[in-house]
Amino acid sequence: MEPLSIAEMGHFFVGGRRARVEGRPIAEMQLVPGSPPYRADMNGEYLVASLYVEHARPDPVTRPFPLLFWHGGGLTGACWDTTPDGREGWKLWFLRRGWHVHVSDAVERGRSGYAPFPEIFPGAPIHRRVNDPWEQFRIGPSYAERRAHPDHQFPLEHYEDFVRQGVPRFVGTDGDILAGYLALLERVGPSVIIAHSQGGHFACAAAQAAPDKVRALVLLEPSGFGSGAMPDIPVLLLYGDHIARDPRWVTQRAAGGAFAAAHPHVTLCDLPANGLRGNGHMLMLERNSDAIAARVQDWLDGIL
User: Which domains does the chain have, with CATH numbers?
Assistant: First the structure.
């Protein structure tokens, strides 16, 4: 691998809001064995729902806009860093091609801001079981039997390494998540967004709320398309393989087809129909992820 010249790298936080908690009982607890009791008073004012962003700027920057990576549900920005089998992820792939990249953890995930629940966040988080990605993300029909689809692209020997990335996912926090992403766009200015799954819904919602801050969207099997009128922004919509095996994904794929049909500026790319077979939902982590990234880059070259 060729050396990579980095002009700047670091992280920052944006967004957040103040909120108060009242009426919680005060508890005494021992935080460390042998230490004096700690009086835990959780009443008072909090700064919650901030957004964590790490960025890296290559030397030189050869692309016209910042590139933002937004992850899916139950995950963090780690899914853009490294593939489960140890290869460079999309963050470095696009960094090597001259993009100033920004990888964020959505509000209430990873290193971003949490809040007490149910006083501020409305409820307890949900968690993904070890078998869920295998069966729900179209790796194969049975995790218990380690059965995968015959032409799968996921590195099965590293499946548990991927599962370890999972984090709690709160519900009822969409407003805070979108506010965090809009604060990011306000800080970095007009950008290209590559978003996966739940992140695709927020990317569309951000484009609808701040169309002057979004130059293009790349949506990897998005879970939704926002809730407003879609501005005239170039969109690349990517779907993988084995969709017909799962009614839920048939519905998701049909929604993507309808979205593309309704918006002439949307390009729909069916990967198996374009020679890239065997992908499940985690397109950027599978064995042919570099080939998919190259398709994305070619499309961006053609529209920017």
Answer: 6-303 (3.40.50.1820)
Cα angle at 288 between 294 and 61, to 5 degrees? 30
What is the Cα–Cα distance from 7 to 184, expressed in whole angstroms? 21
Conformation bin of residue 122: beta by default, left when phi > 0, alpha when psi is -120 to 50: alpha
pLDDT of residue 2: 86
Q: What is the pLDDT of residues 145-159, one digit of tens each?
A: 999 999 999 999 999
Q: Across-strand partners of 46?
A: 19
Closest among 8, 149, 96 to 293, alpha carbons compared: 96
pTM flag (> 0.85): yes
Name beta bridge partners: 18. Answer: 47
CB 304 within 8 A of CB 298: no
